[in-house]
Design goal:
Layout (H helix, E strand, L loop, with lengths): L1 E5 L2 H17 L6 E5 L3 H13 L9 E5 L1 E3 L9 H10 L18 H15 L2 E2 L2 E2 L3 E4 L24 E5 L6 E5 L1 H5 L3 E6 L5 H9 L5 H8 L3 E6 L16
Parallel strand pairs: 1-11, 2-3, 2-7, 7-10, 10-11
Antiparallel strand pairs: 4-9, 5-6, 8-9
Helix pairs in contact: 1-2, 2-3, 6-7
């Protein structure tokens, strides 16, 4: 697991964008299948991407998918797709046909099946599961990732690619990528910022499989954590890189 700690959430987001562009440019001519997460943390990254890194990004070589989605229409403020469309995709010169959204307004169980089938057709398989090139993840202060919450660890070993999950506090229905396709990705990159996430980061780095995010971080291949110093507050100094 590679840890990258930066002085602020802005710098962590900027460096993550540059890392993504670097990975894509390492393989000229290849189309990258990238699954992104929603929530407040990546919103800053998407905004910076649109305003500072539009010109260096090879948009035509990116196919965009979603790790998870709230079961709401795109115009709803909770929509992960809607947020990324407003901040980035609606401004970027990415071909329309390269964006594969989860239909949050559809019937949830049917949409989980439809999106799983779409991914089967679009993303190459390896060892029985789709092999995304890059999966971008966040982590909640409860240790959840990909809308897989503590107590829902069975979804980490589901035989489906996408399933229906439920937020344990507000009951909101969500569609979530399960554990095996995440573990099968070529690159798994977390963006975690803020002091409220310090406990989760400490668990990910220094403890066992104490939640969905920690489980993924420990078992996926080529895992990178991009953090600000607030999120990295409780990591032992010996495990930190110098602040950039």
């Amino acid at each position: 697991m590679r840890l990258e700690v930066f002085s602020s959430s802005i710098e962590a987001s900027r460096e993550l964008i540059l890392r993504l562009v670097e990975i894509i440019k390492e393989e000229p001519g290849k189309v990258f299948n990238i699954a992104v997460s929603g929530g407040n943390t990546p919103a800053l990254m998407f905004d910076l991407w649109a305003n500072e890194y539009m010109d260096i990004t090879p948009w035509n070589r990116m196919h965009i998918y979603w790790v998870d989605e709230r079961c709401v229409p795109p115009a709803d403020s909770d929509s992960n797709y809607g947020m990324m469309r407003n901040l980035l995709l609606g401004l970027a010169p990415i071909p329309y046909e390269n964006v594969f959204r989860i239909r949050g307004e559809a019937k949830p169980l049917k949409e989980a099946v439809r999106y799983s089938e779409l991914v089967k057709k679009q993303v190459p398989f390896k060892q029985g599961w789709p092999e995304f090139d890059i999966i971008l993840l966040g982590a909640g202060d409860d240790g959840h990732t990909s809308s897989i919450f503590p107590g829902q660890e069975d979804l980490l070993t589901s035989n489906d690619i996408y399933v229906l999950s439920t937020h344990p506090r507000n009951g909101q229905k969500r569609i979530a990528m399960t554990g095996y396709p995440i573990l099968n990705a070529r690159h798994v990159i977390f963006l975690i910022t803020g002091k409220s996430k310090a406990d989760v980061v400490e668990e990910i780095c220094n403890s066992g499989d104490t939640g969905p995010a920690a489980y993924i971080a420990h078992h996926a291949q080529n895992v990178e954590l991009f953090m600000d110093k607030g999120a990295a507050l409780y990591i032992d100094d010996l495990n930190k890189k110098d602040l950039n």
